[in-house]
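Figure S4 source data
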Amino acid sequence: MADFAFEDKEGNYYVIDVKTHNVETKFNMPNLTSVHRLARLFYNEAYREKDYFTLLIVQYKIQNLDINVLDVHFVPVENLDWDCLTIGALGWGQIQIANSRNIQIDRGLKRKHWMLRMCDELNDFYPREIAKIRERSEFFEQTRLFWQEWPD
């Protein structure tokens, strides 16, 4: 979940995930974290409002042999607008930046509302995944029937 973590002098605990993006690549859709891991971090008996899952996003460009840093964001995940996020089908679901060229930060977003939106996104995501799994299962049921009839 993190590349590193630390606690500051005020007792805030930061779990930091570093994401780099070469702006000259055509498409980047990085995984941020598992929805389950994030929910466990924010929802447990030891939960403290001072716990943050924070992203250090570095956008850069390579020119000759130099790496030129163009932009750096240090932002709690709950300040990423859901309009630039998506959920990928890995494990319980992976929060992803839909396109690293389009990172939308809203520092006014509150964790409660962000997490409620995540739950809404998952309530839409899981039924679509169930439908995909049913379709795949039916395909392989038909495939199995085909191969059962195949001569030895």
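Figure S5 source data
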Amino acid sequence: MKHYPKGCTVPLRWVLCDGCGLCIDACEKGALEIRDLSPSFTEKRVCYFDEPGPQNTEKVCDLVASEVKRGIKYVVVASTGGNTALMMAEHLKGLNVKIIVFTIPPLWNDLYTHPTIPRDVKQQLESLGARIMEEAPAVIECGPETIECQTSYTSRRAVSTYSIGELLHGIGGQGLPTAVEGVFTAVQEKEIPVGVETIGVGGTGSGADTAIIMKATPYEQMLSGTKENRFDLLEIIAIPKKKQRYW
């Protein structure tokens, strides 16, 4: 058995230790103690919903509020009719955060049956400090058909916009691409400064079931800009286990 000097901190194999403390009780010499984890380690849990859909909205709002209290300053919430955005704004009321609402532009009414935000709901949102991007086109769906992807130090290749959307769908269903696109659009509209950590919130059909933290990035630079400006999904706060696609 190897002996260590008194007061020595001995690293353990963390994969073999669950922090139960039984070794402390078993040590006859009283030589063991539990200390705080390294400051470089942060333990967080992802909230997984069994089913996608609006029944998860309240929980998503609670989780986002917790992250805002930890220091996130920007939240982009996707909301077609305004009800999800209003619920989020109520949960974040009084907190130091900018709320941006990502919604369907009125000019899309001829193409989609989704309702636009009614005037009374707009007034409530604005009274709570929310900024509604009502005229902003969605950057992925309405942007260029291809963007450049850095494939080496010197080479780039065109990547289909639709493939980016489909990849996000495959990872997170409807909510993830919506949440990501909302943040990209807010950057495009200069509602969010480039580089800041931002929460994006999306849903499946209606309500909210997905929340992420990503670095605010210019969409055209998400795969080929400077490393600091490329797409970076920092954390998943909540996501449904069962995925649903638009088509």
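Residues 175-188 form the longest helix (14 residues). Strands lie at 47-49, 74-78, 98-102, 131-133, 146-150, 156-160, 197-204, 206-215, 233-240.
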